[in-house]
Specification:
The chain is of the alpha/beta class and 680 residues long. It is built from 22 helices and 22 strands. The protein is globular and about 95 Å long.
Length: 680
């Protein structure tokens, strides 16, 4: 008989829906719904020592029974004094008369809650309370879960405990032998202890075991992807294509690093195994030129290329540049984005399906069901960190034996690269085109704004373009962040009233964004006030200055990407970071940008200072979801990778019967929301 959420204590239709919102669809999901934090109620604090804002456990005696007072809004406030041998504090309950009346004068209780007030006027509002005689310190480190409205921590703890008691002994441990070799905790013990540890040391031991499992399955999955792609017969492109006409049509000579990357890709394209390669290089190193060379070779071989960009602004920019370049060679380029009219979309679909379109540039619209290629041979995704394994797989699935190239201008530290790109071969462009000048970067506070705006006007007077970047779109009275719309109105009527301003942010309609970028490129807009919608790829050659408001709100790698919007020609360029932060660590982090233009050095600093969650975002940019693993833990990554490789050496495709449970775990990890298995 199956055991469902409805079989659990207090779960009816309403609560089931709330649990579903959290991604919990079965009791087993509760076991893997790990806490985000813990309340440590095991250690007592003395009243004299507690400070406002602390959440603590206090052992105290109730001085008298609670008194109750009715407040406006039909609220009831219950108050009483509690004391220990160091001082007194007020215990207050709002609308919890029933809880207060359970506590009696002279009783000794453990109160847990947040302290307010100061010195001799300390209070605890709505604390939990239990008799000192029933207190068990080994059961007083309590989990704190991510919740939605309608669910409480106590109720979630009850459900998780029930799921553990009912199902824990049914959970398989395919890695029991591996864990034992490494002295790791048994899986069942780890799953219980991650929710209800008896102390911090046990919680950390449990966490270590579960992290090992996550990384082990992830490493195997990425390797399996790589191996399985090599089983396919590639679309083999011609090796005798004359590339001279393409290079002659460029207005510059490619760097040695670009030519090396092209050669590595060409060797893949003319081989029997589908290319699966990452081109990584710093901002402005010329990755797009490498992609264009490969597109040319593909078209001359009679096949199609799909080029996917993360935003419509960037997709249109690539389309305009590529269509102009490839038109010289009789190669047809088509644009496919979500904002096309129904008629434009039908026409694009037809040109793609008939093979008229040799190059298709677009956004996520490329992976929709209506898109059918005549002879797709090459897929290219620009700004790889904006896409994931599954989206690449969806695009590759539009053909058979398709070659894959992904490009990233976000340098990834070696630690993360082992995981993020475990299924890819890597080419690195470590040389900038000739003539590119170093961007001078300055960190200042808000008192410099008058001088900054004077410098903006000076750059505009020289015929250059200026970006002004804000972290927020609209004014929010609860936030101190500068907003795009607020600053635009302020500058238009004030410090920059005599120059042409434009505004750009993500929620604008696609045609509005496109018009703004066209006007900015042409000079009709001289200074553009924008959000990070311009972070990647946007290429305005004569942009010479970028001013970034509230710079402390961004990660270093993101700031480096934004800085890359200037310095894209031989014009001397500048980046000004504005921050009023008084935090020394924050300011030291921002000073990194003023000392180096090396993206890899900046990425390492960003990872070290901010951690992987901030560096990668909440969903690790397309990796299978990691519940616990910290991608800075090189020891655990190395251990998991070593153990995974040992298994793969003996069973490269994980087909042995004894490894079937491991394969099942890997495939579950790599399932997407639609339950499509990217290994097929």
């Amino acid at each position: 008989m199956s055991y469902t959420l409805r079989d659990m204590a207090g779960v009816g239709p309403k609560r089931e829906k709330l649990l579903n919102k959290l991604g919990i669809f079965a009791p087993r999901d509760l076991i893997y719904y790990f806490p985000r934090a813990y309340e440590d109620r095991s250690a007592f604090a003395r009243i004299r020592d507690v400070e406002a804002g602390q959440s603590v456990s206090v052992s105290a005696t109730l001085a008298r029974d609670f008194t109750h007072a009715r407040l406006p809004g039909r609220r009831i406030m219950s108050r009483a004094e509690a004391f220990d041998d160091t001082g007194r504090m007020t215990i207050v309950y709002f609308n919890q008369k029933y809880a207060a009346e359970k506590l009696k004068q002279g009783g000794q209780y453990i109160f847990y809650g947040k302290v307010t007030g100061e010195a001799h006027k300390k209070s605890m509002i709505n604390p939990t309370a239990e008799p000192l005689t029933s207190f068990d310190p080994e059961k007083r480190i309590l989990p704190v879960y991510p919740l939605c409205e309608g669910l409480t921590e106590n109720y979630m703890r009850t459900l998780v405990r029930e799921a553990l008691e009912t199902l824990l002994n049914t959970i398989e441990d395919p890695l029991s032998a591996e864990a034992e070799k490494e002295g790791l905790m048994a899986l069942s013990d780890a799953l219980y202890a991650i929710h209800f540890p008896k102390d911090a040391a046990v919680q950390e031991t449990a966490r270590k075991r579960l992290i090992f499992d996550e990384l082990f399955y992830l490493m195997l999955g990425m390797s399996l992807l790589k191996n399985r792609r090599r089983e396919h017969n590639a679309v083999k492109l011609r090796g005798d294509i004359d590339m001279k006409p393409f290079y002659d049509s460029l207005s510059f000579s490619p760097t040695n690093a670009q030519m090396r990357a092209i050669a590595e890709c060409e060797a893949d394209l003319t081989g029997d195994v589908p290319m699966n390669r990452l081109i990584q290089g710093d901002v402005g190193c010329g990755k797009t030129t490498v992609a264009e060379a490969l597109i040319y070779r593909c078209a001359r071989s009679g096949a199609q290329t799909a080029f996917m960009a993360p935003t419509e602004v960037l997709a249109r920019q690539h389309y305009e540049n590529m269509s102009a370049l490839f038109a010289q060679h009789g190669i047809n380029t088509v644009l496919l984005t979500g904002s096309l009219t129904a008629r434009e979309r039908r026409m694009a679909y037809e040109r793609i399906e008939t093979g008229f379109a040799q190059v298709v540039v677009g956004t996520h619209a490329l992976i929709t069901e209506g898109v059918r290629f005549s002879h797709l041979a090459l897929t290219i995704t620009d700004e790889q960190h904006r896409f994931g394994v599954r989206q690449r797989a969806s695009l590759i699935g539009k053909g058979d034996g398709v070659h894959t190239l992904v490009m990233s201008a976000t340098p990834i530290p070696r630690t993360l690269g082992l995981i993020m790109y475990g299924d890819l071969d890597i080419s690195i462009i470590d040389e900038l085109p000739a003539g590119r000048m170093k961007i001078d970067t300055f960190l200042v506070d808000g008192t410099y704004k008058a001088r900054i705006y004077a410098f903006v006007k000076k750059q505009v007077a020289m015929g250059h373009r200026v970006y002004i970047i804000c972290p927020a779109v609209e004014y929010d009275e609860e936030s101190t962040m500068t907003s795009v719309t607020e600053l635009y109105e302020e500058l238009k009527g004030g410090a920059l009233s005599d120059i042409s301003l434009g505004v750009l942010y993500g929620k604008m309609k696609a045609e509005q964004k496109q018009k703004v970028m066209e006007d900015f490129s042409s000079g009709e807009i001289e200074a553009l006030i924008a959000t990070t919608v311009v972070e990647v790829g946007v290429d305005v050659k004569n942009a010479s200055l970028i001013v970034i408001e509230d710079a402390d709100r961004f990660g270093l790698s993101q700031l480096h990407q934004l800085r890359g919007r200037v310095g894209r020609s031989d014009i001397k360029s500048y980046c000004v970071l504005i921050s009023d932060s008084k935090n020394e660590l924050t300011l030291e982090r921002l000073k990194t940008l003023t000392k180096t233009n090396d993206g890899f050095e900046i990425a390492e600093a960003d990872l070290k200072l901010r951690g992987p969650g901030d560096f990668l975002g909440s969903r690790q940019h397309g990796l299978p979801y990691l519940r616990l693993a910290e991608l800075t833990d090189m020891d655990m990554i190395t251990l998991a990778k070593s153990r995974a490789q040992t298994l793969l050496d003996g069973d490269p495709d994980i087909t042995r019967k004894e490894n079937a449970p491991i394969l099942k775990k890997i495939e579950a990890m790599f399932f997407d929301d639609a339950k499509k298995n990217i290994f097929n």
